[in-house]
Amino acid sequence: MKKMILLLLLLTITNTVSAAGRKNKGHRLGGGKGSLSANLPENSLQALEALYQKYGAETKNWGTIEFDLRETGDGVLVAMHDGYLLGPAGELKKVKQMTYSELKKYAPLVPTMTEVLDSIKRFHSETKIFVEIKSLLSDFAREQMIALVDELRLTHARVKYGAFRGNFKRSFPRDKKKWCKKLRKVIALEIYFKNHCRR
Which of 31, 62, 94, 125 is deepest in the core (most CB within 10 A)? Predict the structure, then answer.
């Protein structure tokens, strides 16, 4: 009986989160499969521009601007969901092992975090902005991410971080308390939506 209740709870939450994702037209900057600009790459400035052209600076009718964040092998923060790319011969290439210039050869539309935030600044100051942390490798990148978001908060106060538990642990493997203090709050993207920093 307990297993059945848990299964129903999981299905309900999954359906709710899926529906929310579909309603939020700013998911992955508005690009990719199932989005407003399905013909444009997810997490791209081109998709964000299409979102701006359709809805303007106001966001009350379409939700939150969300993008995924990774660090390249040479410490550049980029908006990218997947940790792998297909090379010219069909081989898998890890983003964390590539320099930014190498990454741009295979995926020329991948923007840096700085480029994304600069583009977001023209949206209304009450726009909700969500940075989903996928993979941070170095303290330099962690500090840079926090500094960039803190700068954006001067004009756009509704900025939040988020990460699934595994991604959070890999991105902040040491001195968790130190990083949690700097991050202020990290939303956990999992069933009970607890704050990682309270654990």
Answer: 31
